[in-house]
Amino acid sequence: MDLAKLLVLAVPASLAFAAGCSSSDDASPAAPPPAPLDASTDAGPSVEDDAGVPPPTRDAGFVDVDPLPIECASPPCATALVTTSLPVSAADPGQGFCALLSDRTVACWGANASGQLGRGEPQGTIGASETPARVVGLERVVSLDHTCALDEDGATWCWGTGPFLQDQQFWGHTTERTPVRLALPAATHVGIGASVGCVATSDGRVLCWGAGDNGQVGLVSSVNHGPTVLEVPPGPPIRRIAIGAATFLVREDGSVLSLGNSMAIGRVSSLLRDPFPVPIDLEGVRSLDIALANTCAAARGIGYCWGSKLPSALDNWSRAYPRGLVIPEPVVDVATTPTLSSLGGVSVPYRWCAVAASGTVYCWGANQNGQAGTGTKEHVNDAARVVGLPAPAVSVKTTPSTTCALLTTGKVYCWGGNYDGQLGNGKVRGLALVPEEVILP
User: Looking at the domain covering 3-437, what would its CATH class be?
Assistant: First the structure.
């Protein structure tokens, strides 16, 4: 396989969609080498400009755009879409999806080896599901992040396998086949990763817990921690928390704070593992998605990605800072996945999708299961329009083999691989080279 075909074209943020735009920011000095990451966590679109120097993104921008609204004319409908993935490595992607329904319940489908569908199956009988069904016992839900949900009272509920605060001796992982309530104050937002969780509380604090090895609980340590107050600088309220090898706090004004592994935080740091929430150089962020050490965001109509190094001669810092993506029109959402380990054990960037302000979905990267939605299984080098969606999209979510989009009608369509029933179409195995409707309950 030609390695060059696996790399995705990207441009500095100061140039993407920005003829006539400029920045007076001075280039910052190269940062020291980051904490090492396992090869399986390298991911993201390629950047082949100056490695080790953050780009000037402060003045970059195209237009300030919002996703299209959802109008449910024919229930059942979804109002939000997430993946069930809490990947520890690219070899364990946990391919499945959950949707927040208009009746404020949650339905999930796909892989279920860790109980991530929340259906309460006894141990030893857990299997994948090709048909979405409601998570047991959840109601009055207002938001989701992977397999955690907030209800209208601010209670945090989680299911599957993760750092769910049930092991209060070691604060480790547990497997919960039905939702459990976490012992936390009332929250407005929740973010959950493979080993770390955080909530923004109703009284304005941010609490984080779990593994301390990347500094994501506000300190660097080799042990797990219970809920700990994160020292967040004063500013607008937090409206989104995203967690992978780094933690990102998106404020109401679209500014973003980051902490964690310095390869993934998207900014200069003198620390290998940075436990301090500090702003990154992006403004107007509408969406942000992280998978292990690969992060993408949509800000002022431009898509950006950053993360760990590429499988090339570029040094470790070639993708440490946000760079604009080449997409034909302004975007409101960008989704990313973990990497694919191949080519003699080298990890290569995997795949991405984006939603434009028009509702058009674009995908690029790996496509061996038709997950790019082009109607073929040929690798996609540049952002290509997904064919066959019956309505504009609001958001898009990706796993390594499958893509799902939430449409303005409230319906969910998926395409790509279906080994675990993650297409949600009532079938298992096989492929869908074009989008198929998910059978929502």
Answer: mainly beta
